[in-house]
Amino acid sequence: MAWSDSSSSKTSAGTASRSSPLKLGVGLAYQANLRSFIEDSASPINYLEVIPDTVWADLGLGREPRYVEDLDSMAFLEDLNHRIPVIPHGIGLSIGSAHRFNRDQVLKLAEWRERFGFPWHSDHLSYNLAEHEAGEVNVGLTMPLSYDQETLDLLVPRITEIRRLIDVPFLIENNVYLFKLAGAEMDEADFLNRLCDESGCKLLIDLHNIYTNSRNHRFDPLQLLGTIDLSNVLELHVAGGMEKDGFYLDAHSGPLPTEIWALLEWTLPRCPNLRGVTLEIVGSWVPTVGEDRLRGELLALQSTWRRYQPVPEPPQT
Amino acid sequence: MSQRAFQAALARVVIEPEFRDLVASGGVFSNEGLTELERRRLAECSQDRGMDVTRMLHKGWRLTKLMAMTPLTCAVLGEHLIDEASTFWRLNPPTSLYFLDEALGFLDHIDASRPEGVPAEKLNAIVAHERSLLKSRQEALLTMEHASAMPV
Questions:
Q1: Which residues of chain A are within 8 Å of residue B7 when distances are taken between CB atoms?
Q2: ipTM of this model?
Q3: At how many degrees (to 10) do helices A258-267 and A291-308 cross?
């Protein structure tokens, strides 16, 4: 393993580097049809984020082995991990499910930590598994959690356990929601701040999720960002979306909207502990966007990253 | 306990159109374990236009599974696809992120339902062909000889 730490231009290797507070730079979310683009050493990416649930098959509770990996994908990722970090970003943990904790998935990720040495990992502030008369259902969407004390009480011990089992920062991603849960005890920023304080987790702030929510529910995204403790933010997500039936969707469907660039410019200098900005695009949209445009977006992200990270010194007066 | 019951009920609102209609119309359903606030949240969510879009995304996710794994069967079903898929979804709640088991279940459903207006001989041949392919993938997955994760 030989990752390049973009903040210091030093090459780090081995276990010590795996725990170092790397500022990686710009990452890309893995899609199988982007392999040649990712493999190209000239591609402007400093790390690859991968949804582990897309490169393993979960055979279900009680099955042994439970997780069967796609050998071809794993070989690709392990090879790439010699050049740049491969960082898991889960969708299957369903950390907010009240009826059970998906501990097997955490143990599987702990195994990945040994294999890949990733510097952090993340999952969503949501649930997709719920009880049902058929046993258990998977809604297939990131269902919203209520910003209540009861939810904090559910999440804090689980995150504490994750942090005990996997010795690198665990990031929770703010959710996108198309409907609101009324009567919440806390607003979103207060909930995220308290979650970090009480559990020790860090944040992955998805700027496109905030933008999507702000358009659909008519609020000022900067007002929300301004009340989140941005010192907890280790990663940002950026993406594009689309209109459908009067709603704006977090579809990861194309180039970044102008508004996302503006949010990024506002946020980047205010996150002192930020380690990376990840561009998300769905594989089916890659042919439409084109690799040249994708490369252009990544280069623009690199330029923006270099302008603000590390945080500039305050002006001398 | 109430959070478990609420999450289960909200999941039903997304995956079961009849249940969503029932809750939205103020109909009577078993809501034991829900607090007054959770009952109000459930009613408001079920009436929210955002729930329409959420349901559309959910159906799109399930339809993607079928079209990705059983493209020929879907093509032969043509205009009957959505009706058949809706019946299949009603009888088989989604249990996994993964595509393979759901696609095999859909082929079993088509075998049993034999939709009118679709050329039976052609449909049978296509279903048998796609089942054979998927079974091979399933066996490979279970024996780990050549593990291949399904797209999600």
A1: 96-99, 127, 130-131, 143
A2: 0.90
A3: 30
